[in-house]
Design brief:
The structure holds 2 protein chains of 2 kinds.
Chain A lengths: L6 H4 L1 H5 L15 E11 L2 E14 L3 E14 L2 H6 L3 E16 L2 E12 L2 E14 L4 E16 L2 E22 L2 E14 L7 E5 L7 E5 L5 E15 L3 E12 L4 E12 L4 E12 L27 E15 L8 E19 L12 E16 L1
Antiparallel strand pairs in A: 1-2, 1-18, 2-3, 3-4, 4-5, 5-6, 6-7, 7-8, 8-9, 9-12, 10-11, 12-13, 13-14, 14-15, 15-16, 16-17, 17-18
Chain B lengths: L1 H21 L13 H4 L9 H14 L17
Classes of the chains: A mainly beta, B mainly alpha.
């Protein structure tokens, strides 16, 4: 088996180590359980599986949570079709965490482990936040450290490490009785084996029948990135909310990106809430990215990962939530059923579709659509 | 980059000095009893944590950018 797009699944670990902090500082998260089915289908890749999150507070000061998450992957993506064979595999992730509230100070500690056949990742995160200025302002900082082990199926002698550190600062501010904004900064440093052990780059080869050949990609062993985001939520006069977001990203690999998003939430009678959104994302290529290198070993670093190419994405999403009473389930206070569907369009500016019959470097640029489904039910207790 | 930080620091210092000299006291301008709208669940940056985390993962796995995803913060002081 040769999986050329493993990165699609492994970075979730890094993210999930952070989101439990996503709560107001002076309030413990609600006791709730969520059971979700998630599915992604696009570009020849399908990923689906369950995610279960359970959280319980103790004496209004401590809240403990656990999450179990599975990705079941089947890939015949363009990378796989071009240089390898279709594969299926599973990734399992487990997280535990504890949050502690003391006055207006909120602290969170979590640990996450992710396992798949050729990748193991562990991460620990600690965060602290504080409400002040009449609870109009919340300032939070967090730090996380991750240890990854990269293996290569079919090659028992291959084993590499990667270490990650993340620093994050969050500031949220109530501006009016209807408007709240937040500014978020996050810096990430990676060190170690950062490329994919399966992915290859393409170079011109007059001796090859199709005019090009492949060789393994090679990335720098360090990467440092910075992301800054500004978000705002506004309460509309007729009980609905509008959310806007802008984020800018840059890193030492030369990737420069930004995204903007607008979302609208509209409650209806009977416990129904509708949501709609649009998101745009734009990115420039990494300095060492090329769709087609002029010769073998053309540079000291080489990438043909389409996630490091220049491209744009458009996301259109819609969701519906329905809150219901749970009198028939005495353990619960209320429940909510949710369905969210997102359509994402990817348009690449310098990543070509090698499946097309054309001279090397003259193939059409690659583009594809994907569908993301999140169906989940939540219970509060 | 260093100059930017210096300028920002200078601006903050000047504002603090002006505020101090004028005796200006900055008070919280939205009282707790005025935060009903902000306390509405539809105003949460992270209304469904498990679903939002998954969508961030979808983006992260397919985009070069990472970090500063939404959800953190809040702080309406609504409890």
């Amino acid at each position: 088996m040769a999986a050329t797009d493993r990165r699609l699944v492994r970075r979730v670990l890094w993210l999930l180590a952070f989101w439990p902090l996503a709560v107001p500082a002076a309030v413990l998260p609600e006791d709730r359980a969520d059971v979700m089915y998630h599915a992604y289908d696009g570009g020849g890749l399908t990923v689906d599986g369950p995610s279960v999150l359970v959280r319980k507070a103790y004496k209004d000061q401590v809240s403990i949570w656990g999450n179990y998450y599975v990705d079941m992957i089947s890939s015949a993506s363009i990378d796989v079709v071009a240089t390898a064979s279709e594969y299926s595999e599973e990734r399992e992730e487990k997280s535990i965490g504890v949050d502690y509230l003391n006055g207006k100070t909120f602290m969170g500690l979590s640990y996450t482990n992710s396992e798949e056949s050729d990748y193991t990742a562990n991460a620990v995160r600690f965060g602290i936040s504080q409400d002040f200025f009449g609870d109009l302002t919340t300032l939070g900082i967090s730090y996380a450290r991750g240890w990854d082990e990269v293996r290569r199926n079919g090659d028992e002698g291959f084993a590499e490490d990667a270490k990650r550190q993340t620093y994050r600062v969050d500031l949220s501010q109530i501006l009016t009785r209807n408007l709240i904004v937040s500014v978020n900064y996050e810096g990430v440093t990676d060190e170690g084996f950062l490329n994919n052990p399966y992915r290859q780059v393409r170079y011109l080869d007059p001796a090859a029948a199709r005019g090009y050949s492949y060789e393994p990609e090679l990335y720098p062993r360090t990467r440092t990135s910075s992301a800054v985001a500004l978000r705002g939520m506004y309460y509309l006069p007729y009980r609905a909310s509008l959310k806007a977001e802008y984020r800018h990203y840059t890193d030492t690999w030369g990737v420069d990106a930004w995204n903007g998003e607008l979302a609208y939430v509209h409650p209806l009678a009977g416990g129904v809430v509708l949501e709609a959104k649009y998101r745009f994302y734009d990115q420039s290529a990494a300095d060492f990215y090329a769709d087609l290198f002029p010769r073998q070993n053309a540079q000291n670093f080489m990438a043909r990962d389409k996630e490091l190419a220049s491209y744009t994405t458009h996301t259109v999403g819609a969701g519906v939530s329905y809150e219901f009473e749970t009198g028939w389930l005495p353990l619960f206070d209320k429940g909510e059923a949710n369905l969210f569907v997102d359509w994402i369009r990817f348009d690449y500016d310098d990543f070509r579709d090698v499946r097309a019959a054309a001279a090397p470097g003259e193939e059409p640029f690659y583009a594809f659509d994907s569908l993301v489904i999140r169906a989940f039910i939540s219970f509060w207790y | 980059m260093r100059m930017r930080f210096l300028r920002a620091g200078l601006a903050v210092s000047v504002l603090s000095f002006v505020a101090g000299c004028s005796g200006w006291q900055l008070e919280p301008w939205v009282s707790p009893y005025e935060r009903n709208n902000l306390a509405d669940p539809i105003m949460s940056f992270n209304r469904a944590p498990v679903a939002q985390a998954y969508l961030h993962h979808v983006y992260q796995a397919r985009e070069g950018a990472r970090g500063a995803e939404g959800g953190s913060g809040g702080g309406c002081g609504c409890n």
